[in-house]
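Usage

Read records sequentially. Each one opens with the input sequence:
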Amino acid sequence: MMTSHEEDLDLLLSLDERVAETPPSSPTISDDDDDELELPNQRERDKPDMSVFKSALQDCLPYDPPKPTNKPVINVDSHLEKFSGLRIRNQLLTPVELKEHFSDIRFVRLSVIKNSLVGDTVSGSWATVGVLTEKGTQKTSSTGKSYCIWKIGCLDETTVSLFLFGDAYQMNMQEQAGTVFALFNSTVRKDNAGNGFSLSIYSTRQIMKMGTSVDYGVCKGKRTDGMACTLVINKRHGTYCKYHKSKASEKYSSMRTEL
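and closes with the structure output:
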């Protein structure tokens, strides 16, 4: 009699004859299909098709237009002059040349000169930069020589008086408002009240034209007498001076209250 182990062995051996080499669910290639393309293997068939996924996400991706390669990328602050913080167009000096002019000298921004005074002057060799905001009329000194008084500022609605004498006046009397100048070793004079000060230059060696202010502008508002406001503003901050901005805000608030 055949033992149970022998029966199991015969059963396993018989399976090789009953089970097909290719599973029923797998496709087979007949001799008649020799002229057709070979079917992809199992790995290629199981690889997911990502084209549908990419198409679905296409509208959700941020638009990134191609950047032109034949044009240089322009920096929006390409006009910024780092010493003064002013934006200047039509610059007459390169950044390297400006650095050379200011390398061996103390640079003091116009807005902090008052805090830098030692007595009635700024110690050592120094320089500053300002925008011409107002040209004064020609005046005559007690010695019969011509001079004028400019107003210069850094577009913060405050100005400093600049006295031009000698060839400093003669060589720059035709310059227009909005022009940016560098001033070297100006003479500082405090006013009688001691709250403000003025600057004076006497030679062309003390003044250097740098270019034209990008942000120079004049307030679009009107004074109480109906005349146009003449206050110089920074156009980056709007088209009105601080005073007319505050008046407009008060008027708007009043209208809202009435409503």
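Summary fields computed downstream for this record:
- The first helix runs from residue 4 to 18.
- The chain has a mean pLDDT of 79.
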